[in-house]
Amino acid sequence: MTETTIVHLLRHGEVHNPDGVLYGRLPGYRLSEDGALMAKAAAKWFSERDVTVILSSPMQRALETAAPLADTFDLPVTVDDRLIEAENHFEGLTFGAGAGSLRRPEHWRHLVNPLRPSWGEPYKELAARMRAAVIRARNAARGHEAVCVSHQLPIWVLRLHAQHRRLWHHPKRRECGLASLTSLTFEGDRLTDVAYCEPASDIAKGPSVAGA
């Protein structure tokens, strides 16, 4: 008999970002008031689950999302740097035309290859580090459930990789809402199912904010 283990990838809640910048790995970006409610909604969703391991990205917004979950299960939050946000050339800038960074020619060379992508961390490297973090969580929670708190792009690329789909994509096609869950079920070491849900969907007021 093989053990069933579930690794949940929890995206952080909404971030306080009044300037609408791509905050990426910049420090100091905390959850908004709604983001804190989203974190609590996610923790409530987990309350009857068999969670024994919690890992998190080192970013403040991820750790704040993990906190209610840690309180629910009286578990420590272990930081895993592999769950961090993807690198992005446009970090700290607003994106788009008009007053955004796209109107400045010095940025154009970073847009030439969407398949890699040329503006940031290669999708293959992103998928590889996220897969390693998931394997760590799976091995630590054998026969139970683990939660990894991360960010939209890393979670979405891992899901594409797990489902043997191409990694390059249009950002608007990501199914990874704020405080959403992408759940990977393993029988032993074999991935058998990928599921998705949004425990905090009633709190989100609109599309995902910049920075993810």
Automatic annotation (TrEMBL):
In terms of InterPro entries, this protein maps to: His_Pase_superF_clade-1 (IPR013078), His_PPase_superfam (IPR029033), PGM_Phosphatase (IPR050275)
- The superkingdom of the source organism is Bacteria
Task: Please give one Pfam family short name.
Answer: His_Phos_1
**Which SMART domains does the record cross-reference, listed alphabetically?**
PGAM (SM00855)
This protein is called Histidine phosphatase family protein
CDD domains in the cross-refs: HP_PGM_like (cd07067)
Q: Which PANTHER family match?
A: BROAD-SPECIFICITY PHOSPHATASE YOR283W-RELATED, PHOSPHOGLYCERATE MUTASE
The organism encoding this protein is: Actinomadura meridiana
Q: Which SUPFAM superfamilies match?
A: Phosphoglycerate mutase-like
